[in-house]
Amino acid sequence: MTGDVGHGLRLRFAVLGPVRAWRGEESLGLGSPQQRALLAALLLRGGRTATAPELVDGLWGEEPPQAAVAALRTYASRLRKVFGTAADDLVSESGGYAIRTGLGALDTDVAEQLAAEAEKARHSGDRERARDLLNEALALWDGEPLAGLSGPYAEAQRARLEEWHLSLLETRLDLDLELGHHAEAVSELTALTAAHPLRERLRELLMLALYRSGRQAEALAVYADTRRLLADELGVDPCPELSELQQRILQADADLAAPAGPAAEQHSSGAGFVRPAQLPATVADFTGRGTIVEELSAQLATAEGSVMAVSAVAGIGGVGKTTLAVHVAHAARHHFPDGQLYVDLQGAGPAAAEPEAVLGSFLRALGTADNAIPDGVEERAALYRSLLDGRRVLALLDNARDAAQVRPLLPGTEGCATLVTSRNRMVDLESAHLIDLDVMSPEEALVLFTRIVGAERVAAERDAAMDVVAACGFLPLAIRIAASRLAARRTWSVSVLARKLADERRRLDELRAGDLAVKATFELGYGQLEPQQARAFRLLGLADGPDISLHAAAAVLDMDPVDAEELLESLVDTSLLESAAPGRYRYHDLVRLFARACAERDEQPPAERAAAMSRLLDFYLASTARVFSLERPGDRLVDHLEPTSYPGLAFANRRESLDWLFAEANCVLACVVQHASGPTLRRAVDLLLTSRDLGESGANSRQYELAAVAVRDAAHAADDARAEGRARMRLTHVHMMASRFEQADEEARRAMLLALAAEDPVPACEAPNERGIIALYQKRYADAEEYLAQALEAFRADDNLPGIASVLCNTSRTHAATGRHDSAIRLAAEGTEIYQSLGLAMRVANGRFALGLALHFAGRHADALVQLTEALALFRDNRQRLWEGSTHARLAEVHLAAGRPAEAATHAEQALALRFVDGEWRRGIVLTVLGKSLDTIGQPDRARACWHEALTIHQRLGAAEAEEVGLLLARAATV
User: What pTM was estimated for this model as a whole?
Assistant: First the structure.
């Protein structure tokens, strides 16, 4: 038995790196290289005996020393002493030696076991586990196998172990692509092909990874580079597999498309595939609709075949479209084991849900991190379809406005299905199965009424019950409201309710057609509310946004949250309000319109409506101001906000505050737009400022920009210089992040003028700082320094230390770009020290980033790498993926300048994989650096593909960088 018997400690050995041994956790000294070579030779024979001649030949080759055999005996004796009580593990027999290790004592044995388990897992379909096992095996390598050992045997075994390592890597990378990790794999494959340029399997995997990442030109360039290299070096053509892949890429073979998997789902988030179950609860008393239920169920079942099923249910508001769709969706869940998605598209309201926002919500539900969600409908829709490819998912799109709103939300793949409800018949929704939903039959309506109220009460007054459902126009929602009220009042008879409805029906002839019929039905339930319930129903309907949280609702009602929750839950019981999730409430869109009409008609005095919305605005502004303070301690913005009268939330920590902000994103931005007028305009602008993280999150950037535009235009129309200046300041940042530099500079210019007119320190500080950054990007260095000097003076006047540090770091970049390296380094160091003194970990990363750039421009590449690497770690720890990607891009530049093109290519690929490029201009910059790196490591065709893409981007933007890229392509054409 292997181990220290006296202490129960086993011996362990490693050869996948330097040859090492441990007793328990104690590292053992193994002596000279030749003594370690003997140990390695015995370990790698798997317990078999090696004769003395075999060992002499393996250690010394054709010229052994005269006392070689004696040396072997000495080495063996010394190793036994090192082994201690496990000395018997090294045995002498048949004129040779052997080591009998225990199970798992040698790292190669562990790696073989892990690789075998990975192969079994892969064959059984568990690719995630197979990938994890292979990563565990690969982690056992610690540099070069048998490092520092010479001799024929060590050299042969080293080559074998390195080949095995590459083979395992190829298998793991193959699994990466199968699981959809193609974007992340590009970086690793680029480095591997540079290190092993003649290994065609790596080139094949790189081509496939690039193609699946939407980089077809680069994928084809890899083939061209490979063909040229093989011809030059070996005089042969690429292998048939590589040539076939090239042809399939040229033909855009659909089978090459990226499979849906955990990486596609998370887009580098690191988590597994999430199976959403978003369907609202089905009602226990669902009634009737048997024929339509069968028809829809049969249609959804076809999704298991070769088509994508799309069904659209149309009908007037309140006819039961949602109830029917949810019931059918629940019944069909077994057909869609990979999940069910649900969204209320708010198509009947004044502001229907934007497909881009809905896609963001769906991507998050499928496990995609916020910072991995792309901007734009097209990119989000493409990622959404990729996630669902190969999956069986049902999407219920409730309350759609029209076919145009629905089309981007269709999965587009067999095995998935979409169920749509709308007030409008979607005759222009291609290939959709259309169903018109009418009111219930009298028999069905009576059954529904009876199930809610109770058979005993209805049986005693059947005629009165029929009068009730007839008065409701046989509309399911109206019947449910009336029956719920009756069920909640045991002292009422059915006749009492019938008489009440009869009285109101004299005024509700509109039940026969259109939306007025729905409004009349809501009037029945509203009229039976208690006064406090009715007030809550009216006021909560005034707030824009898809739903409202309990605490926000409490602010509207000016109530304690505990009391507000009891009141809201009582409204949920009447079906006039829905419980969207624990602590969140929403209206059906038509009920919201009805509630607002009631508020205008019944809320007295009318000023209470404005007061309720003012409390909501105060609540959001005070809460987001606290989020801002936790994120940016020391920033003076919070001292320049409009005062609030209603308190916001208190947060235990920064993470909790951000979780709240992103959960409330849609409601906060809706509140900004809703209050962008009159006496609430300035607070709406300040709410935009304090929620700035929403504009930089990626997932909410488009909604944030629309809100900023709305506030800017409203402030301009109101001739409010203070509000307009602040709105333009935020739009400056939005445009700059999207690389729209001309628009950004114009907004900043006007913000500065408005700040002067309004004597407002907020844009007076931030606008010139932003203009300095814009000028820096545009290489207008004199302008940049002038603007940054203005910003520094303004921040100092405001005693804003984080602002001062920001300007110092930005000024450092202008000095570095103009050759003033000593001052650039000094300024960046000063800015970093300020950030450190304030305890701003993330901003310290910004400082180190600037310092790294200054050192890079000064030619101190080793020091620059230290600073940028530290910045990278801080950005990663703070979940700042945009900055993480930007730092990778800068690391690529430094490595390239330092003569390490393979490392440069790796970092450039990681920047692209992290999707740090908010604007096309930045993507063009990274592609240029990647092309230079690839060209240097002998991949000129792929380099040209990168440059062509970069040139297209810069020419479209009219960017100065187009000239540099054009010269690179011209030079490449002459080679």
Answer: 0.64
